[in-house]
Amino acid sequence: MQQLSPVHFGYMDSVQVSRRLLRAVVYISVSKPSVCHWLVIFLEKILWCFIFIILHIQISQVAFNNPDFNFNQESFVSSAMSTVPGVLNIQAYSDRIENEEREMLVKYISVLEDKNHKKEIWWQTNKNNNGTKFDSKNLKSNLKRNNVFIKKLKQFSSEQLETALKDINNLNLSKYLSEIIEALIHCKLKVSDISAAVKVSSELHLIYSDFASDYLEYWKKYLDLYENSPVFNRHKYKVDLILFCELIISGIFHNKESLDILYNTLCSLVRADLTAHKNIDIIFNFCKYCGEDFVGAVPRNIRILSNKYNIEVPSGRLISPNFQVKVKNLLKEYYDSLSLSLKHTFEIISTLEKRYNDHLLEKGDVHPDKLKQLESFKKEFAALNYYTDKISDLVDFTKPLLKKTACENLCSDIQGMTREQLIFEVWGDEATEKFYNELPNVEEYLLLTSKDSDPDFELNVYQQVTEETLNEEISADEFVTEVFNQDEEEWNDKADKDEDKATAQLHVFLNNLSSCLNQYMIDTCAIEFLITYDSKQARNKLVEYFYALPRTRYDLFPFICRFLAIVNQVHPDIAKKIADKYYKQFRYLIVKKDQIRLENKIKNVKIISELLKFKLFSSIYGLFCLKLLLNDFSHHHIEMACVFLENCGKYLYFSPENHFRTKSYLEQMLVRKNNVILDLKYKNMIDSIYHLIIPMKEVNVSPSVRKARPVVHEFIRHVIYTKLDQDTLVLAQDLIEKLNWNDVKTERYIIKCLSNPNNIKFDKINIMAKLVQSLSEEYEEQMIQVVDNVLEDIRLGLEVMDKAMSQRRIAMVAYLGELYIHCDLVEKDTIITTLYSIITHLVDLEPADDLSRVVLVLTLLDTCCNYFPHSVLQKELRYFIIYFQNYFLYKSQRWDTQSSRFPILLLQQRYEETIHKLYPNMKLFHCLDESMSAVQKIFLDISQKYNLNLGKMNCLISNHIQDSPCEAISNNVEHTEEGDALAEAYDQLVSNSMKRRADVSVNSHLKDITIPVIKKPQNEMETQFFMLIRKANHKPMLKEISVPSDSEIVTTFKSSQKSWEDEMYHVKQITLRYNKRIQQESE
């Protein structure tokens, strides 16, 4: 036995090694319980074999060294293999499974046969012995006991079965059958009470011959459901339906009428519930408890085993197969509708998930109401899926296949990165990643893992809140009034007052932390604090020290937070208190909104960001702090947001749970930078932070998608938008004219391209106008459509007034001016009408500080003001300039009330230059009152000139002046009293004009005819004939006279006619030479 001691120790070492390996495997795979279970079983079998192999080798060595040792190798191996638990034997395992399946199938068949046999006996008994046990002599007629019995039946349960049967056999209840039946039907039974209720009914059926017929009539009335009528008491109805089926199976209701009642009831339940599926629990209970008898259903697992082992499962013989087929078809119809509803709900869930994922991708979060809607659909789907699985297993229906649509991976840009790439993007190098994620194990240095922690502290307090909860806290938050500016001097002054020696040593220790600027030193200090200074008072001092860190020691913050993370392993309440303090300080600084203590604010967000990277501060709270800064994005809040994102922006951006919300906040910050007038310093800070966090490959990830167009359309765009300039104008005209204008699509696309000057450079708009003029000589109708499209686009731009279309509107207005200059299709009236429409059309709907209409008017005047006729400049345009000055001064006055006058000052110089270019001597108005008086004077002049009602006109003008100057010159289309007065004045003007026109007689001014009519002679020697006009009796008369050809009047007339023809010929030659020279210069 002494020689066997090494074997004993070897065996024990092997067991210990195996157990340690098993524990390691369990620890590694603890996150996946299913994998862990099978892995442990497999490794346990292998390790037991390994143990016995080692044991066998060691025993063999002992036997070799000691010849007297008797060892039977075969007996040892066989005994070992028999005693090792779970040695793999595939054939034995399969045989064991097969035997278990056979035993289960045989047991099910035996139970089913026994059940069917009992039902048949019960059926025959109730069918053949109706009323045979009635004996009036042995039954007592006691009114009091009969009433007590009926009351008991109203609250019947299986526990009262023996008492009820005893009372039935002793009492004469022939006169109380209706009350008994009513009590049995309205009694609230459980599924476990059904067999007892059937026995009571069977006993009554055997004694009283009229019981079954009366009972069936009551059931017929109770189970009868009107069309589309709901089931009010669903729980009772599903139990009563099972009870009625058991009464049929027991033989109490053995006629065909009972089966018809059951089928009609099932039809009412099914046909009225093919969409809502509110009766699904009733149908499920029917399949569960009555499916074997009335449907002939066999559970799916039993049917598979019977087919596998070729063993037939017996079926009940009490219900006819035809009725079972009818009921099964009815259930199949309901199951199909249930499958469709299941698929439809699944598709809705998939669609909503994809939609909300896309919303999460764009916005960073999803509204809670939408998430609640999705959860309600998921609950509905879970219920439908549960009942679908159960019914398909019970009745052996085919389960529907649900094809889940491929959902895009929301974090594909993060999950596609390797660990090295992720470390480089987030931390920069592996050493920084280890600094924040790898902490020393404190358990190796301490005997206890926790000392004096707060018992009421919750570790996951930050993870139990959502951003919606934080939003609700804003309105109800009572911010502290103390100023959070405790600094290092106050900490030192407070420490000097402490006279305790231990406290003084702790103070020295904490002050020395400011010199720990590497990982080894800060880890050593943290462990020293836990070993030496770990007490409740010391932890409170530590919290105060952390809160009083120097404001400008930014290099110290990461190491102090690492110190806190190490201590957090033992005392998590310290990190919680410090995080709460800095979070409350942040909220106070946000609400205070002062422009002082910038260093305190920067310190606050830097420490919060460092705590967040050490997972001591919740990311939900961190992103909420960033959201509060974006809500009031100005001054110090911009610097705080940039510092926060500079420290932990990459950490949040590359974490899957915070990726899209961080990206959304970055985009919001970029939008606010573009929409708000900020200093150049702030703009550069925002751009730097944005491109620091988001890699450049993600900024331009979406390449421009080129629209597929026909070749002819691409050629038209190339000619007009790309190659058109002053040198290629004639060539472009020839190429466009050679296209197939008879093709409707080609013609429309040419018109479309010529109607979009915003697709070319601004300095080439005049060349496009020249191209339209050249094409109008041959295609005038098409070029008129181009002009109409330009005018319609200007009108649409005035109605929409979208800031994104501002450049398009300016290009369209400039294009209209160029068309007026180079093309005869645009007249001066069109330009004047457009100018008025720019400052009047829907002007009441534009923002008060919007100056886009001023820019449009100045652009159109700068383009074509030098080409207006003198008459237009003297009269029509002068009126418009007065109106335009009124509009401009109104806008300028509105900008005076705001903090910035930069946009209005930018247009002031251009406004003055444009008006002085048109009217050098015009005096500009300097205030709104002057312009309004000028507008009023114009109205009065017009009213006097056209004899309008001055009283009504003055009232109309004064009302408009009181409202706004824009409304004074706008066309108000609404039916108001002023509008009716203006319309009445206009009608009066038109009627007076028509009356004066009717009084004027239209006479031919024959006295203006000075040139006589001459007829050409037949030859030169003949006389010439003239028509002489004379007046007789106040009527003109013509008389033909003949004049010799050599007379002076004929000679003078011919010479003047010849000189006129020579002059016209000379002008024609000059024009031809000029055109030829221009053509040669262009070539």
UniProtKB/TrEMBL annotation:
<feature type="domain" description="MIF4G">
    <location>
        <begin position="507"/>
        <end position="696"/>
    </location>
</feature>
<dbReference type="InterPro" id="IPR003890">
    <property type="entry name" value="MIF4G-like_typ-3"/>
</dbReference>
<feature type="domain" description="MIF4G">
    <location>
        <begin position="143"/>
        <end position="341"/>
    </location>
</feature>
<feature type="domain" description="MIF4G">
    <location>
        <begin position="714"/>
        <end position="923"/>
    </location>
</feature>
<dbReference type="InterPro" id="IPR016024">
    <property type="entry name" value="ARM-type_fold"/>
</dbReference>
<dbReference type="GO" id="GO:0000184">
    <property type="term" value="P:nuclear-transcribed mRNA catabolic process, nonsense-mediated decay"/>
</dbReference>
<dbReference type="Pfam" id="PF04050">
    <property type="entry name" value="Upf2"/>
</dbReference>
<protein>
    <submittedName>
        <fullName>Regulator of nonsense transcripts 2-like</fullName>
    </submittedName>
</protein>
<dbReference type="GO" id="GO:0035145">
    <property type="term" value="C:exon-exon junction complex"/>
</dbReference>
<dbReference type="InterPro" id="IPR039762">
    <property type="entry name" value="Nmd2/UPF2"/>
</dbReference>
<dbReference type="GO" id="GO:0005737">
    <property type="term" value="C:cytoplasm"/>
</dbReference>
<dbReference type="GO" id="GO:0003723">
    <property type="term" value="F:RNA binding"/>
</dbReference>
<keyword id="KW-0963">Cytoplasm</keyword>
<dbReference type="InterPro" id="IPR007193">
    <property type="entry name" value="Upf2/Nmd2_C"/>
</dbReference>
<dbReference type="Pfam" id="PF02854">
    <property type="entry name" value="MIF4G"/>
</dbReference>
